Structures are given as structure tokens and as C-alpha cells.
Amino acid sequence: MVSTSSGQNYRERALKIYPWVCGRCARDFTGKNLRELTVHHKDHNHNNNPADGSNWELLCIYCHDNEHQRFSEMREITTPDEHEVATSNPFANLKKMMDDK
Fold first, then answer.
1. DSSP state of 40
2. Cβ atoms of residues 59 and 38 within 8 Å
3. Which residue segments constitute the domains of the chain, with CATH numbers given?
4. At a CB cut-off of 8 Å and minimum separation 6, what does 43 contact?
5. What CA–CA distance (Å, rounded) separates 23 from 6?
């Protein structure tokens, strides 16, 4: 893993590695609208910048915002913060129930 402090450094590298197309909506980009194409970190870790670009994908600003919104919502749902955690297991005796039939 290569860690870099410069966001421009990994953006420049990603733009050299990948075609200028959004990885979600397939919108094409040119030099004129390239500022609307962002580098998304697949694992959401901005410090994980491997030289081969395997943790990056190019997304337009709209798809990038959508991806981060979805990630935030998923974390809210899966993080038990103040929510009560289920403790029952309805299938705990499934084998016994199946054997009894």
C-alpha cells in the first residue's frame, strides 16, 4: 500500500491509468469537463492508494455523491450505536425441529 498525502497525486495517477469514463453511469469526459470526474476509493479509505490503482474507480460527481450517501446509510443501518441489537435466534433449534418431522 502506498500512502500519499497529496490528493492531486493519486487523482493524476488515476486519470493516467483509467479511461475518462464514469464507472457507474458510463458518462464520457474530456479535458473540458474533466473536473467533474472524481477518484473514488473503493474501500472508502483515502489513505489506501496502491500504485496500481486497484483501490480506485473514476466516478462522476453525481455517482460519487450517490456512492457516499449509500455508504453512509449502510453504516447507519449496520452500526448498532444506540440501537438495540437482536439477541434471539429463531433458527437455533432448526435441526431438532426438522428431525422431529
1. E
2. yes
3. 7-100 (3.40.1800)
4. 55
5. 23
Q: Dump pLDDT digits (tens) for 22-69.
A: 999 999 999 999 999 999 999 999 999 998 999 999 999 999 999 989
CB-count burial class (<10 Å; 0-12, 13-18, 19+) for 100? exposed
- Percent of the chain having pLDDT more than 70? 81
Q: Return the SS3 of 84.
A: coil
What is d(CA 70, CA 49) in angstroms, rounded to the nearest whole number? 22
Strands 37-41 and 56-60: antiparallel
Cell of 5: 498525502
Query: SS3 breakdown of the chain: % helix, strand, coil, rounded to 5?
Result: 40, 10, 50
